[in-house]
Amino acid sequence: MKKNSVKAVHSLVDTYPKVPLTVDCVIFGFEESKLKVLLIKSDLSIYQGKLSLLGDFVKNNEDLDDAAYRILKERTGMTNVFLDQVKVFGKPDRHPGGRVITIAYCSLLNIQHHALNIHENELDWYDYESLEDMAFDHKQIVDECHSWLQKRIQEHPLGFNLLPDKFSLRELQNLYEAILGVSLDRRNFRKKFASMDLLIDTNEMEQDVSHRPGKLYQFNFTKYEKKKRKWIGIDF
Amino acid sequence: MKKNSVKAVHSLVDTYPKVPLTVDCVIFGFEESKLKVLLIKSDLSIYQGKLSLLGDFVKNNEDLDDAAYRILKERTGMTNVFLDQVKVFGKPDRHPGGRVITIAYCSLLNIQHHALNIHENELDWYDYESLEDMAFDHKQIVDECHSWLQKRIQEHPLGFNLLPDKFSLRELQNLYEAILGVSLDRRNFRKKFASMDLLIDTNEMEQDVSHRPGKLYQFNFTKYEKKKRKWIGIDF
DNA sequence: GGCAATTGCGTAGTTAGTACACAAAGTTAA
DNA sequence: TTAACTTTGTGTACTAACTACGCAATTGCC
After folding, report:
1. Burial, B15: exposed, middle or buried (Cβ in 10 Å; 0-12, 13-18, 19+)?
2. Strand D nearby residues, CB < 7 A
3. Which of A59, A125, B42, B123 shows its CA 20 to 30 Å from the CA of B111?
4. Which tens digits make up the pLDDT trace of B76-100?
5. Which of A223, A178, A179 is nearest to A198 (CA)?
């Protein structure tokens, strides 16, 4: 068995194959009862007109998470967003310019809260349901992040990050139905959220609806943080 | 907006920073009521005596999953194992030889079924609970994979992959207790697995135990595959 | 004022999880 | 051989969570 000094380790590492590494951000939002994704039109002529995720190469001494936050900020101007690493995609032929590995990061955010400060390459919110073929393997990446989201939203009340501050229970249910792709019983849905005891009644009502207006609620983020361990805990 | 030809894309990709990429395999097993991990002693002198995951660099045109299977086979001789990608670790200083990104893959397997065909660097099964500081950031990686396992095992009956073909309910419970780090009520535990209706009674009994012997069961893998969608399905 | 749409509340039945008790089967050792 | 000990195997009563519904009340619109 051969042992290596630090110097030897350096030259050992130097001999190994290197690959370009990128981060792609899958940012979900919700508007008009539809799940949206933040996308741009691809720069590459071979992907002309196709939609692409917000992505960029990771810098030499940049932490992966930092790279994701940097990219989001550079491309959209957004800060104060939480990103989660979802999965690595590394098929040798996934990028036309040669082998590129990409790490998918995902986030959910309130469209009203995060204005798009930068307007390049038709950066905009696109309907998740209407997405067809995208640049690279980005459709697959978005779909995997969507599955991740479906799972996460059933374990944690993450949906609130996608809604305006004040929302009706109907809006909340629309959100869950849009993400999960199912229809839910209205009464049981309310009961579930009522029993969680994380909604604050604002004593305000919906405006400009052509039917009986619903109450508006706020999510009690403070209380949620305290209860969090309940969701993480073991209940086998 | 500048459009790029394929050729231009190639040269564009070539200008970006590249990093060495590795895969590390976290293989869990179970023996003598203890959760084990398959590890080796580190090659590197600065990590002398410390334990290390099974890892290697990803080859130039190698798919990431393929790399994980190759590494496992090269280092242990094992085939017929399912590996799951868990997370990427990429802190700039995580490797003493320079920046190296690693992708952690995880698996669970039956120690009896998978003999260690290769014996280098003290390759062996080590108690998970007794692990202390390891080479690189490998302790952190193992811990993250352990958390992943705790979650997965509560959503899918994966535990059976760690047990011998025929096992008693006590062994099954020991496994869950070892992985989850909690003690469970014996009667409720049995009831839970009985209600899942995935155990086959072999009509055999435990041998060589110094108390009343328990029945031996087999896991009904075929039936599980059919029921799988139930676990994956939406139950909101 | 009547119709349509939607909110808000409630109840009954089922399923899943928790907290227990106790007899039966085997080993060990006086 | 039998009493003490350990562990298995089964059961019951209670509680919490989920499901499938019914129906009156509020608003907009014609």
Report:
1. exposed
2. A 185, 187-188, 191-192, 195, 205, 209-213; B 168-170, 186-188, 190-191, 211-215, 235-236
3. B42
4. 999 999 999 999 999 999 999 899 9
5. A223
